[in-house]
Amino acid sequence: MPNVVIYTQNDCPPCQFVKNYLDHHHIAYTEKNISNSQYRNEMIDFDAFSTPFILIGDTPMYQVDIDKINTLLDIDKD
């Protein structure tokens, strides 16, 4: 299973949606809230400027794409 990192910020409904989706499917992830400047700078290093920014293995996702998440994480569609 690839490592999953989600860059989030407070009061971000799409961020919460992705976290809930992964929780529902029992997928472990690391959350990095960009209120921490180190995490914000890491995200910007990927040329990402909005949240959620999702990193699955070496694959960056600049928008929420459930089909791509399902494919990369081998999740059966509900």
TrEMBL record:
It comes from the Bacteria. Signal peptide: none annotated. Residues 4-58 form the Glutaredoxin domain. It holds the Pfam family Glutaredoxin. InterPro entries: Glutaredoxin (IPR002109), Thioredoxin-like_sf (IPR036249). This is Glutaredoxin. It comes from Staphylococcus simulans UMC-CNS-990.
